[in-house]
Amino acid sequence: MTTATAPGKNKTFNAQLFFQLFKYAVYCLLSMNIYYFFVDDYSASSQTFAGGIALSQLIEAFTATIDTAAWVVLLLLFELETYVLDDEKIKGAVKWSIHLTRAVCYLFIIFSFYGFTQKYSLLHNLIPYSIPDACSLIGSKFTHVVSIDEYIAITAESCKMLNAHSSELVQIAGTNIISDPANLLATQRLSLVETTNSATWLMIVAILEVDVFLQARNKLAGTLMWVSKAFKAVLYSVLFLCAVYWGVKGSFLDFWDAFLWLVAFVFIEMNIFEWHEENQEAKSLAEESHHVDPV
Question: Taking a C-beta distance cutoff of 8 angstroms, is the pair 117, 60 a contact?
Fold first, then answer.
């Protein structure tokens, strides 16, 4: 960007300060979610990888954790490039450091998308499970599906529910996880939403990368800007629907995380808009100066 000016040039200093504090508070909350997702992933992976986690399976076991961490770093890089750093400072070692770090983040994000697809596949890799009395599994290594990434030990209460569906029980192949049809279907749908959300974010950052590239060269205008906004409007709508679905059918953490990411990237969009306005103003002033007749 040209100057580190907060969005809204007519705001008072206190309003600008409040805006920045709010923005960075959102970024901090997103960073905290890395820990919460690690706790969830660790708990779930102990069931889905009952035989132990190989190094090659880390992405699959800790998909949400790795994905969130990579996204947080990527978000901060966008903040640096679109708000914090002046245009003339994004060159040389700084420029290549940003690009290299961003490339590593994208590598992990793409691997995380792969992890989400593998989880979706795992939840559809099923074998029939027949047992006369599910209550006989109390105290065993077997768990049952409650929701996505939530597999709990079989209790006296839950085994009665499983017995009610004894003829329809299934087991996730290669695990000690069993499920009734209703909970399994709900979990599969959440996994589909999770995978869709990941794919949609990949498309959004691809467009943002183009936006930043063009804006750095003062070429983000006219039809290009309109097309970018149109595509992102559709994609952000998909993300909003994913967040709503998580709020209704999923966990609060998934909903809260999805909501925070939407807010965070609104800030990035505002940064790009402000950057564009500053460049347009500078261009107009330069043109006016060029056409001023000598005294």
Answer: no
